[in-house]
Amino acid sequence: MMPFINYSHLRLRLASTLASRLAMTQLATVRVPGHSEIKVPTGLFINNEFVPSVDSKEMIDAVNPFTEEVICSVSSASEKDIDIAVAAARKAFNTTWGKNVTGWERSRLINKLADLIETHAQELGELESLNNGKPLRIARDFDIGDSVQCLRYYAGWADKIAGQTLEVDNKTKFAFTKHEPIGVCGQIIPWNYPINMWSWKVAPALAVGCTIVMKPSELTPLTALKLSELVKEAGFPPGVLNTVPSLGPVGGAALSAHPDVDKIAFTGSTITGRKIMEAAAKSNLKKVSLELGGKSPHLIFESCDMDQAAIWAAAGITYNSGQDCTAGSRVYVQDSIHDKFVELLVSKVKELVVGNGLDDKTSAGPVVSKTQYDRVWSYIESGKQEGAKVVVGGTKRTGKGFFVDPTIFTDIRPDMKIVKEEASLCMLETRILFLRDSRRYLAPSFQLAGSKLRRKPYCWRMQPATAWAPVSIPGIGRELGSYALEEYTSVKAVHWNFGEKLDWPL
Ligand code: NAD
């Protein structure tokens, strides 16, 4: 007779080992030097759970640009994972979200999420600083503060989405429009403001009732995953927001071409924007909004408060280490004050502390990645080769960290590469602006607006009630303000016939 062997304890142990292994692979402990220890989810966030990829063993390394070391690795979504995330978002849209939930309830949940983000601001700020390089102080107080404000702004809109009642010329007919959530939205964001870009996209989409598949940049996936935890804690139903870190040409491309995605909201480079638009056109002609690159000018006139003008110009290019679509990377200075202004600008730039983002004294950290570092340095080299004069910066540091010290060029010409392209990043050209007549002071801005140069309205902190918009090409659609609500809704016209008779045949 066979001895009786009870395997149940073994199965349990196996199961619990598997469970803990799974848990281990979906959670990393990140130590933030001099600060806290943060548990970061590392799986894909689908249906309110962190899960590994169904078919890919690829992991994305999140790198600290100050130390050049890997912080932790997160799952990378495959095309199949994107299908699963889109199906989860579709199911939620049809059952628990979309038109199945009141505006008041959406508002309540978005406000709850804003409260949770505010409570976790320090931890989120540390993670953002660690992965992006930006100063913790700025990540926490500006980026996260602004994101909370953005969520609250759209929470206020959630129960105020309304169409119109329309007079029609027939007394037996009544017409009205409804502004309905567009459906499942793919949201693809860049690395320069990971939390800000997340909130700008997520808040209006949730407010109107859309569901989301969010693809953060492969360079900065950590805060989007941490925010997903808070989405679940706030009480959003499974599938309303899904997060799929992935490489752009894999997950981003799959989302853009997906036949069951109703809209793509994208912020990033112009070249990727073109690909997304093409994929949208070739698949289901989904709605697309594109926020792309920029190259903003400052115009400095002799009547200015020169000290303030120099501070604004310095901030315009050094903020976020220049990694900003609104970076004021061109400065046009009236001839009479040019030399004095440049001297002042250089002195302001020299006052900045460029260093470890986790240090409270730091004003600007390293740039986000080795690729970005090489790219910026290649622009600096090209500026030098083409004859521009470096008045500050322009020399590489030794040691670790993707640092590019603020660099200012003078003596530039319009045909130089650094003038024509979004060289961005810690680089500023000054150009002499000849103006004699104060009545003509506004003219250059119109002239610039008509030029081929890409541009953005230069601004400081974002205001959620205002529109954020490309003024001309490239770009489609508007972010922020009531304008963003239009990006996530479709207008349905309803004709209600309560007695109109039709003579037949026509
Ligand atoms: P990027 O275009 O390389 O990447 C942006 C996102 O697109 C990432 O998530 C990436 O994974 C994804 N992606 C890459 N290839 C893709 C593809 N083939 N299909 C779909 N998705 C793909 O841009 P970046 O370098 O991360 O961001 C920097 C750019 O973003 C700069 O040009 C900056 O000016 C711009 N930007 C614009 C705004 C704005 O509001 N207009 C704001 C921030 C940044």
UniProtKB/TrEMBL annotation:
It comes from the Eukaryota. InterPro entries: Ald_DH/histidinol_DH, Ald_DH_C, Ald_DH_CS_GLU, Ald_DH_N, Aldehyde_DH_dom. Pfam families: Aldedh. Residues 56-422 form the Aldehyde dehydrogenase domain. Gene3D superfamilies: Aldehyde Dehydrogenase, Chain A, domain 1 (3.40.605.10), Aldehyde Dehydrogenase, Chain A, domain 2 (3.40.309.10). The active site is at 291. The keyword Oxidoreductase applies. Keywords: NAD, Oxidoreductase. GO terms for molecular function: aldehyde dehydrogenase [NAD(P)+] activity. Belongs to the aldehyde dehydrogenase family. This is Aldehyde dehydrogenase. It comes from Mycena venus.
